[in-house]
Amino acid sequence: MRRVVLTSILLISVASVRAQSDSAKADLTGKWFATMDFFGTRANFDFDLEQKGEALTGKFRGDPLEGTTDGHSFQFHAKDTQGGGEQVKGTIDGGTLRGEVEEADGGMPSKPYHYSFTAKLRPTKTTATPQLHEFAPTVFYRQFSPFNAPVLTVNPGDTIHTTTVDAGGIDFTGATRSMGGNPQTGPFYVRSAMPGDTLAVHITRLKLNRDWAQSDDVIVQRAMDGGLAVKMKDTGKTVIWHLDLEKNTASPAKAAEHLASYKVPLKPMLGCVATATGPATAPPGTGDSGYFGGNMDFNEIVEGATVYLPVSNAGALLYLGDGHALQGDGELNGNALETSMDVEFTVDVISGKRQPGPRVENATTIMAMGLGSLDDAFKQATSNMAAWLADTYKLTPSEVAQVLGTAAQYKVSEAADRNAGVVLKIDKATLATLQAAK
Amino acid sequence: MRRVVLTSILLISVASVRAQSDSAKADLTGKWFATMDFFGTRANFDFDLEQKGEALTGKFRGDPLEGTTDGHSFQFHAKDTQGGGEQVKGTIDGGTLRGEVEEADGGMPSKPYHYSFTAKLRPTKTTATPQLHEFAPTVFYRQFSPFNAPVLTVNPGDTIHTTTVDAGGIDFTGATRSMGGNPQTGPFYVRSAMPGDTLAVHITRLKLNRDWAQSDDVIVQRAMDGGLAVKMKDTGKTVIWHLDLEKNTASPAKAAEHLASYKVPLKPMLGCVATATGPATAPPGTGDSGYFGGNMDFNEIVEGATVYLPVSNAGALLYLGDGHALQGDGELNGNALETSMDVEFTVDVISGKRQPGPRVENATTIMAMGLGSLDDAFKQATSNMAAWLADTYKLTPSEVAQVLGTAAQYKVSEAADRNAGVVLKIDKATLATLQAAK
Amino acid sequence: MRRVVLTSILLISVASVRAQSDSAKADLTGKWFATMDFFGTRANFDFDLEQKGEALTGKFRGDPLEGTTDGHSFQFHAKDTQGGGEQVKGTIDGGTLRGEVEEADGGMPSKPYHYSFTAKLRPTKTTATPQLHEFAPTVFYRQFSPFNAPVLTVNPGDTIHTTTVDAGGIDFTGATRSMGGNPQTGPFYVRSAMPGDTLAVHITRLKLNRDWAQSDDVIVQRAMDGGLAVKMKDTGKTVIWHLDLEKNTASPAKAAEHLASYKVPLKPMLGCVATATGPATAPPGTGDSGYFGGNMDFNEIVEGATVYLPVSNAGALLYLGDGHALQGDGELNGNALETSMDVEFTVDVISGKRQPGPRVENATTIMAMGLGSLDDAFKQATSNMAAWLADTYKLTPSEVAQVLGTAAQYKVSEAADRNAGVVLKIDKATLATLQAAK
Amino acid sequence: MRRVVLTSILLISVASVRAQSDSAKADLTGKWFATMDFFGTRANFDFDLEQKGEALTGKFRGDPLEGTTDGHSFQFHAKDTQGGGEQVKGTIDGGTLRGEVEEADGGMPSKPYHYSFTAKLRPTKTTATPQLHEFAPTVFYRQFSPFNAPVLTVNPGDTIHTTTVDAGGIDFTGATRSMGGNPQTGPFYVRSAMPGDTLAVHITRLKLNRDWAQSDDVIVQRAMDGGLAVKMKDTGKTVIWHLDLEKNTASPAKAAEHLASYKVPLKPMLGCVATATGPATAPPGTGDSGYFGGNMDFNEIVEGATVYLPVSNAGALLYLGDGHALQGDGELNGNALETSMDVEFTVDVISGKRQPGPRVENATTIMAMGLGSLDDAFKQATSNMAAWLADTYKLTPSEVAQVLGTAAQYKVSEAADRNAGVVLKIDKATLATLQAAK
After folding, report:
1. Is the separation of the CB atoms in D310 and D276 below 8 Å?
2. Mean pLDDT value across residues D212-241
3. Which of C240, C282, C335 sits opposite B284 (nearest CB)?
């Protein structure tokens, strides 16, 4: 069957949270963020409480609740429409609730089950003077996992300056620092970022920090029909590229006959930007991509671009890596010009903004990505952009269609990985005539 | 089963043809182009003869032949490697051969069969002072058929100035001239264009000639996942666009609320450019696309672009139509901004150049198209461009991979028709560093 | 743009038609079937008239009409909701109406346009004593075209006994009768079959009538990844199969080493069963498939099966051909075991039954086909079967899902043609428990 | 970029291993299986040594080696063709080698790097009297991970009798034992199974052990075109099915109107059978599938079937779970009839047999699976079966094509997960005519 996890736990509606002092009797009113232990699996969920005197009302995992609190402990019952629901009791420990749940799935022949949780009020967005953090990585992770300890904690608005190793784990000095497979710098913990928010990663600087890159001469299976596969059957060797950082071009280090003068403009990009995936699912490897971003290999994730990714864990847990000196659309060699990178980026948290897939923005365009087979990625990119237009510009379905029909620009971003990528771009100049209409 | 036609008849190798006088005894040496009648189906093929005295040698439909001629008649026998082959005899009537063939498929239990043909020497490329033809269409065809009589005959190098009606058959005065479905202007017969050649159509002028276009507000099925389909379920109305020819923008004529100021830059393009398909296969409708071009709906087929299409019939039989005032990538509304057009174009014939699919070129880029599902079109576009690089720049497979890996740009051209389209573009500036190497 | 034809003309609702005498003053009340000439393109449409005294009401191409008739002529005006509509006038000539239409597209800046039509009352279903027709074909068509003259006219309930040539045009004697490409026997005109109906073709006999078949040893591109394409690169030869009609097996006539004893059971099938497509669109070649059936290459179209196809022309115009002695799923060699066939089938007309794609039924299962890429064909087959279940068993969407989730059987029917095919089968034994519930 | 890991480490050729006593001076001759620690990532590789006196030769990670040993320590140098290679030295500790490697990638501008390994001789296949193990699971894993401790160690030929919980983590008593998402029983360690081998899992018993299953009434996105998505938009509820273990049928527990008598035959199957993936890549979640098997959701993995899976870790580490009381092809509801299961199976190890994807066999057919989009899965299934025929029956490419063209049967196994599945089946009766030919 499909992965049947408690995905509902990520479908959190975000509300404002009342400030609260730990002294005096606690007022439990607010939106709580809970971490549960479900038979050994960690998961998160939100719930809402409203306290009036000793009476509690609100909503627990979709079900309306009623209960009481005496300031030290609480108990409530939440009922679903099928005759099931949750019996919850617990204690108040400063700002932390510790609860025990007996849950019965209404309409199911199964027995009730138990789990425990701890909960804290969802934080308000941190505001502080933005800081610049210098960070020299010492460990490189190969999964976009929520279980790796954060290497640095920052505030929204802060900027981090760091480096990434190349896809093979080699740093700017030529030293191997990790097994290959897109080892990442991070994860960075961004205060106040919570599941249901969007993390904005604005790349303020992306510079090459060595003069060579590694690639190869294959064409990936996804790009070859049978005829081309036969023609390419004897390729498969490593190609080292020389990066001329002054002239801003790349050339094969030992060029074959017809490529002796071949030169391509450098366009440094990050192949991977990701938030950690939720704790209840298997952390993807750093060759994979999805709603969390990941190994998108999109050659417009360059200096000046902002990448928007959904937050699935407290702190977002941001990873970056897999720098490319340049990459043709589709990353047809499987590798691009793989190299180490000098990266600086600013993070921000957009509270409660949802998006159905990764999004990128630069000075002139907005870009919505779809991931899957090319046919499926095309649908997803369209759906992602349609939601963006509807949410941001309040367009009706008919209006969305008219804008897409006249302004859509599609490119294939990636063809080398398990997911191919298609990106739907719209020029901001065109969208500006929508904004003027408001 | 698959369409089992005599496709081999199109696989013609092109050779120079010796000039020949009709007076005196004919020398049959040369490359002959034959039109056959095969049980009521017309088809074409090439064959080669070499005459020495009265002896004939050469190749007939893949098989080596030996025979004789007395200047008035000829006969030869061609043998295949399986024990079959062709017995051919005929008469010489000026520059025309009239032949009768008895063919036996070697290794097949079937009986021998007969057919007749007439053949002429493949023409040499016409050279004449280029002319400008003014052409006012009176009939509009709805199939890219070889059986429609040419509306005009021109020489390679000539320029034709004409008009096209919109996809619904409406002309620049608002008058309906045809049933809808992309009715075409043409076919134009280009002298000396023969099967195996490539036709180049250089669009020298493409201007709007009325101030309105028709579209609608749906999104095509290929672009919608289930969630978007549900959102779009109540759309489906016609949208008339006003074309401001002075300010060079399009706007909805009766704009919905949020589109009251919406403006998109005009970018006139031709949705259809096609050569007629070969006579032995069913002529495609003008909503279809394929190796012959057709309804490609690619928004870079604009003024200044050159479209390259294979020739499948004597004279190429060029069709054009389906003008769009502008079109987003993918033609997501099924219709673009459908309008009539003022078109001028120059035709040329490139003898013996083959290509696996439609190609387009402009001042800055070369573009290879693939057609099918998006996943298949992506493969085809890559294969088409790989062949272009190998043929034109003599790149090895390894070198092709390195150029594609670093310089490929993919866009989705069309998603509204039976075939979707993917286009692989490469900047000429990058290719120039290859040429320098030569 | 997409093929924008007057497809609405096929969306006909079927109603009962009042009998009518040609003598005396005609009563125009009834459902009329019109053939129009639209700027040289033929098309069909239905319209409804109701006559009370001299007053006419009804619906003309979607628009409500009002008018009058004096028994010799008629005139009416039909208005659409956008301010356009049709002015219609004409004469009554026995049971035939001859009309002239001036039509204005409401809301469009285009000018009104004219066309003429003739109309007859939609026929009631013919009832007659079923007959057996012996038919020896002399002509073989290579398009599923409405423009080929019927070779035989029959009643619903009649049976036709005939033969088909093989995909290469070779008959049961080994004589070539047509160019290859699945030349068809037919078209057969079935009285009273009208657009909007469904034609049922029940195959009562399907026997081999020669002892050999032709195939080859390639694997079609759609079935090969790059690795397999490289392995298969040197294949491509014709394979003749011996058909042992007594032992009911096929074996390679000249078996390669490991196939010296290879035997496969014969299972004669028809690769093509089709109704002609509507007159306003380009007739597909006999290698293509679609809503009209066509070259489906489905190995369960065997003796005992019933094929259901939509009717797009008066008389349905049924074609059959492309017999296979047997075929593996997907027709992986591009050819199956291509051979001639002895065919007998009974036709029937199901008035007013619509279906979104071809359907097949045998004694034990119902089968709904989807055609396109495999991913699209899978969706279509599911949608086709979901509609079948909803229409026939009145299942709700939730019930459709439960039946499909527990009873669906999918097979790949065809992979060799432009459209691949996926078939969704359900056992009648399972469906019987639905019927019991009624 | 693509996941660039040291995948070459799994490409092990298997050879016989000389027995060796730990007493006396060790003879290092043999095939060694090494576990490396590469900058914190664990990986495996094989290498070959041949000892003559004190001299060592052989092959280390593809490179020919030369060195020496004194019985307590060893050192050798392996050279690649690009000027790089490995300097290796280490100690002999009983049957274990402990080595340190300095490796230089020839032709790369990067610096040499170091890692350490321990190695043991690859085991010979264990032979022992087959045993039956009763195993009651207490922990359920949600990743096909090599890092979960084996729950039981068995020999090839042994049989294990155990139970599985349902996809939601509920056992045969109705008690919840795990978070949902196909929690697995296992992993089972099979002695002597080593990377490069194939594990055969023969299911000797698969019985239902409770009388209810859980499913729902949605249709998965992959199966719906836009039209069907709109029809299904209001579905989405849980459906409980009653399993009648006596009459061997399933029915909805609270049937909707038209399903009041609906009954489907039970056909218990395992949705998941998997070997752990290699240690160097991210372990997939138990909703995913791939070369390792996993959540294949194929309704022919039933009692009597044998599943073949590649071994990627010492001991194979076999997981099983996700029982379905029955499942339509494609698992269209996302869930099948999810239930707990009583399972008994026998394991075996086939040394050195490779396969490009999962394979299944039963009494009458062999089945090769492909996984991806349906279009890609179709190619993969064909490639998998072509390799099977070539390996087992020594067929040439031409012969493979002829067998596939005449005997292929394709079904869609799964459509609900990230990977869809297509299975290519061939009847053993047909293959028997090949074997007779040998």
Report:
1. no
2. 97
3. C282
ipTM higher than 0.90? yes
Shortest Cα distance, chain A CAs vs residue B254, angstroms: 12
Q: Is A387 on the interface with D (CB under 8 A)?
A: no
Chain C residues in contact with D261 (beta carbon < 8 A): 433-434, 436-437
Name, of A8-17, A181-190, B119-128, the range with top average pLDDT.
A181-190
Using CA atoms, how far apart are residues B202 and B361, in angstroms rounded to an integer?
Answer: 9
- Position B352 scores a pLDDT of 83
For residue A326, the chain B residues in CB contact (below 8 A) are 406
Question: How far apart, in Å, do the first and last CA atoms of chain C sit?
Answer: 47
Nearest CA in chain C to A233: C230
Number of cross-chain residue pairs from B and C with Cβ atoms under 8 Å apart = 180
Q: Which chains are adjacent to chain A, needing at least 3 Cβ pairs under 8 Å?
A: B, C, D
Q: Which residue of A has its CA nearest to B429?
A: A264
The residue in chain D having the minimum alpha-carbon distance to the alpha carbon of residue B228 is D226
**Range of weakest confidence among A284-293, C82-91, C401-410:** C82-91
* Whether the predicted pLDDT of B6 surpasses 80: no
Per DSSP, the residues of C250-319 read EEETT--GGGTT--EE---EEEEEEEPPPTTSPPPBTT-EETTEEE---TT-BTT-EEEEE--STT--EE
3-state secondary structure of C180: coil
Tens digit of each residue's pLDDT (9 = 90 or more) over B208-220? 999 999 999 999 9
Measured CA to CA, the distance from residue C216 to residue A314 in angstroms comes to 61
pLDDT for A239: 96
Tokens of D202: 């023969």
In this prediction, residue B26 has a pLDDT band, given cuts at 50, 70 and 90, of low
The pLDDT-based confidence of C105 (bands split at 50, 70, 90) is confident
Q: Which helix (H) or strand (E) holds B431?
A: helix B428-435
Instruction: Please give the share of chain C, as a percent, with pLDDT higher than 90.
Output: 87
Confidence of residue C127 (pLDDT cuts 50, 70, 90): confident
Q: Which two tokens stand for residue B98?
A: 């009239």
List, as ranges, residues 249-278 from D with C-beta within 8 Å of A: 253, 271
Q: pLDDT per residue over D153-176, tens digit each?
A: 999 999 999 999 999 999 999 999
What does the angle CA D102 – CA D106 – CA D108 come to, to the nearest 5 degrees? 105
**Cβ atoms within 10 Å of B284's Cβ, excluding its own:** 23
Q: Is D109 on the interface with B (CB under 8 A)?
A: no
Contact with chain C for residue B143, Cβ under 8 A? yes
Fill in the amino acid letter for C107.
G
CA C5 to chain CA centroid, nearest Å? 19
Among the partner residues A263, A407, A422, nearest to B433 by beta-carbon distance? A263
| pLDDT score of A160 | 98
Contacts of D197 (CB under 8 A, 6+ apart): D14, D310, D311, D316, D349, D350, D351, D352, D353
Q: How far apart are CA D318 and CA D273, in angstroms?
A: 7
Q: Give C225 to chain B, closest Cα distance, Å.
A: 12
The two tokens of residue B381 are 């576009």
CB proximity D175 to A under 8 Å? yes
Q: Searching chain D, which residue's CA lies closest to the CA of residue B223?
A: D226
Q: Which residues of B touch D230 (CB under 8 A)?
A: 229-230, 233
Cβ of B4 and C220 within 8 Å?
no
Token representation of residue A390: 């509807």
pLDDT, position A23: 44
Please tell me if residue D230 touches chain A, with a CB cutoff of 8 Å.
no
> Distances in Å between the alpha carbon of A327 and those of A92, B405, D169, D394?
54, 7, 44, 43
Check CB contact of A321 with chain D, cutoff 8 Å: no
**Which residue is associated with the tokens 């030290």?**
A72
**How many interface pairs between A and B have CB atoms less than 8 angstroms apart?**
254
